[in-house]
TrEMBL record, chain A:
One of its GO terms (molecular function) is cytochrome-c oxidase activity. It comes from Neobacillus novalis. Pfam families: COX3. The keyword Membrane applies. The keyword Phosphoprotein does not apply. This is Cytochrome (Ubi)quinol oxidase subunit III. One of its GO terms (cellular component) is plasma membrane. The lineage of its organism: Bacteria, Bacillati, Bacillota, Bacilli, Bacillales. Its main location: membrane.
Automatic annotation (TrEMBL), chain B:
NCBIfam families: CtaD_CoxA. It comes from Neobacillus novalis. Signal peptide: none annotated. One of its GO terms (cellular component) is plasma membrane. This is Cytochrome c oxidase subunit 1. Pfam families: COX1 (PF00115). It is found in: Cell membrane.
Amino acid sequence: MHAEEKMTYEKWPAAPEKTTLEAKNKFIGFWLFLGGETTLFASLFATYLALKDKVPSTEAALAKDLFDLPLTFVATMLLLTSSLTSVYAMYHMKNFAFKKMMVWLGLTVLLGFGFLGTEVYEFSHYVHTYKHTFTSSAFGSAFYTLVGFHGAHVAFGLCWILSLMIRNSKRGLSLYNAPKFYVASLYWHFIDVVWVFIFTVVYLMGMVG
Amino acid sequence: MSTIAQKKGFGGTLWDFLTTVDHKKIAILYLIAGGFFFVVGGLEAVFIRIQLAVPNNDFVSAGAFNQIITMHGTTMIFLAAMPLLFAFMNAVMPLQIGARDVAFPFVNALGFWLFFFGGIFLNLSWFLGGAPDAGWTSYASLAIHSKGHGVDFYVLGLQIAGLGTLIGGINFLVTIINMRAPGMTYMRMPLFTWSTFVASAMILFAFPPLTVGLTLMMFDRLFGANFFEVAMGGNTVIWEHLFWIFGHPEVYILILPAFGIFSEIFAIFSRKRLFGYSSMVFATVLIGFLGFMVWAHHMFTTGLGPVANAIFAVATMAIGVPTGIKIFNWLFTMWGGSVKFTTPMYYAFGFIPSFVCGGVTGIMVATAAADYQYHDTYFVVAHFHYVIVGGVVLAILAATHLWWPKMFGTMLNETLGKITFWFFFIGFHLTFFIQHFLGLWGMPRRVFTYLPGQGFDASNMVSSIGAAFMSIGVLVLLYNIIMTQVKNVKVGNDPWGDGRTLEWAIPSPPPFYNFKQLPLVRGLDALWLEKMAGKKGMTPAEPLGDIHMPNASFIPFMISFGLFIAAFGAMYHKDYSWGLPVIILGLLVTFGSMFLRSIKDDHGFHIHKEDLVDDTEKGAKA
């Protein structure tokens, strides 16, 4: 099957994300890339743990003063749900249901923006209420770098999914763009998994430990 | 699209190389750029040896000396050794597995341009207020307090170049996993392909920690963060860890392809199957794995404590086992073979004793207690030059001679090649052997001069004379390359006459689609098997058909160029008000180009089989 071929429901293969050679390459290449991203975040987590609560003076806010679990709970729910909606989107992609896929992707994007909104609010809250900034201490630098790297990934993922949706809105699914949607959703799941670790290591352990 | 070569002017050729996605042309780009930086790093080495030739010398100032040693190390590792190995991986690996191109030709070009612009950015520091001067390891305790913009050039330049290496590694991995010809199972892959595979996997996991380390350093120096500011709660040891979690795998990323190159050479010129093929594969994978377990042996004197030091010491020594397996396999490959002494074989012969010397001193410095004596002395300098020059550089020179005909269709002169070898090999041992003793006698590394009468004078002079020998060797090689290209005597598929693997089954240089029909691989050393069965070439695995090829693109150049612009903005944004707009402009160019790539469909094109048949008939007449 060729990537340019006009597709119908009957012709649509079971695994459209890896039917052509290009798609297979993209599929494996992206999994490998996520392996590299894992070491990237592992390094950031290690740095954060080494610098957690390392501040220059006794007045500076520590992790246990800063974090607020209700807000983090909302952010977590938004992001985890967006992972679920992207699963539904891929389910419809595999069934050649383009419109339904777009609806679920749209929901994913909305939830993603919701998450980003809570994060922006959270950061500005820390800066204004606690004077906890990127430059105020090693703890501040490490916190904003780790959580900010994740936030930047979310923002990039939103731009990515949105451009895919707009670019393909008029022409439906093909074996050329199906792998693109699939890989973007893989990326979205990865961001979600990283958040699970941030939630545990930064927020839960910050409140308890 | 016709496959017949067209005459092009200089502009056409330049545009061709700026936009190419062909792995063979990208290999040539890597070879030229890596060769250029090798000469630059070599000149820096010559300046170091002139300065140290006599005591109390003032050839360069102490500050300039720091810049020169920093740039020598950084250039040689990141901008010479890596790209030169990437040149051969690009040129040969797809041919060895019987592929028409790499998995992601566009990404391949992007990787090259990122490396290129990163390297240019780093070297522009010489003209813009001074080069980085905190050593190639750029320890945070020094780097944070380095004046001027030198270290900023290091941080931003390596960040850009490192991204290129990372995506290059992913590309090679996918190529080997997905693009092997019919019958090319993993355990039939040539050793150079295997070592490319393992080195690429190491790149994938080793480069992100460097990315993080460089980002933290950039944030500290340019954006007011406090990762390494102890007064603000920071910790400089974090940099040491991140750097060496990358840095130690990096030396195996360099040496494994070198091992692969020598494995090919020993088999070809002993005219015998590589001894212990499966144990070679096993040893390669094991070295790749253990390479991640030993980084703290660079930090024995940091004060991690006796338990950590003991664990890392034992893990380090364990690497001697798979390496020893390899050494014996190479010796046994020659045993009973019909050895032919060509230039690549000279290098392979010279490599074994040289590298074993480096391995033995490696075990010595791995002994944590003893390392307190060796640390930061010339003994360590001697050790890592024995493994890097005695291993990697000899392999690069050997591969240059071995695969030159495959890349350019003409053979380097054998006599000049052997002259290069003798100058380089003798010069190398003259330079670095004595440095073991200088270190044991107490000469610290990274000092810009020393006093007379301490017993260092004669030995340093010997070392400097050796550097002159190595330089003559490189000059002879450059002369050889120019003369060879001027004469341009064309050669056939298998110019050495003893080729064993698939790259020797196709013309030199190969047509841009590599294989007209994908070959059927029946076993290890696929071409050799067919030769032994009395056949002239490979049996095709498919009927003649249309070939799908990727389109050329200028976007990789633009993506990389955008980062190059943004790096200038980032560096000067605290000094000048134009900094921030320039960062934004650069990132717009990069992300805009990525966006363009994303929304513009690129289906590639097909070469029709009628054109392929045409080609053969024309070739037969010529």
